Amino acid sequence: MGQRSLIYSFVARGTVILAEYTEFTGNFTSVASQCLQKLPATNNKFIYNCDGHTFNYLVDDGFTYCVVAVEAVGQQIPIAFLERIKEDFTKRCGGGKAATAVACSLNKEFG
C-alpha cells in the first residue's frame, strides 16, 4: 500500500481487528474502528465518506476487510483491493488460526 491512494487497511473478526497496516498517521484508524463497531454482521459491502476519504468495508462470513482510500480514487480500486485481501487472508490465515486469533496477533504474519 505504498501509494498515497490507499492509506490504511485491516482485517477483523467481528469487532476485533486481527491485522492492520498503514504507512501514514492520522485519525483514520480510529474513524475506521468506530465504523467497524456499527457495521451490520450481514455479508455485504459498505462505503462511508468522511474528510476526503472513503472507508470501504467488505463483510464476509464473520470477517470484515477494510481499506481507507483517498476519495479521488473512486470505488473500483478499493473494492478490488478488498477482494484480493479477502482471498489472501483466507489462504494464509483461514481455518482455526483466524477463528481463534486475538487482537492484532496476525499483524506480523498478515499485516
Descriptive report:
The longest helix is centred in the last third of the chain and has 18 residues, at 76-93. A hairpin with a 2-residue loop joins strand 1 (6-13) and strand 2. The mean pLDDT is 86. The chain has a 5-stranded antiparallel beta sheet, sandwiched between helices. By secondary structure, the chain is α+β, with helices and mostly antiparallel strands. The chain is built from 4 helices and 5 strands. It has one domain (6-109): Beta-Lactamase.
What are the main properties of this structure?
111 residues, alpha+beta, Beta-Lactamase, five-stranded antiparallel sheet
Number of strands: 5
| CATH fold field value | Beta-Lactamase
Q: CATH first level: which class?
A: Alpha Beta
How do the strands of the widest beta sheet line up side by side?
A: 2-1-5-4-3
What does the main sheet amount to? 5 strands, antiparallel
Query: Into how many domains do the coordinates divide?
Result: 1
Into which percent range does the helicity of residues fall? Answer: 25-40%
Structural class, by secondary structure, is alpha+beta
Uncertain segments are none
Concise synopsis of the structure shown:
Belongs to the synaptobrevin family. This protein is α+β, with helices and mostly antiparallel strands.
List strands and helices in order, with pairings:
Elements: E1 6-13, E2 16-22, H1 28-38, E3 44-50, E4 53-60, E5 63-70, H2 76-93, H3 96-100, H4 107-110
Antiparallel strand pairs: 1-2, 1-5, 3-4, 4-5
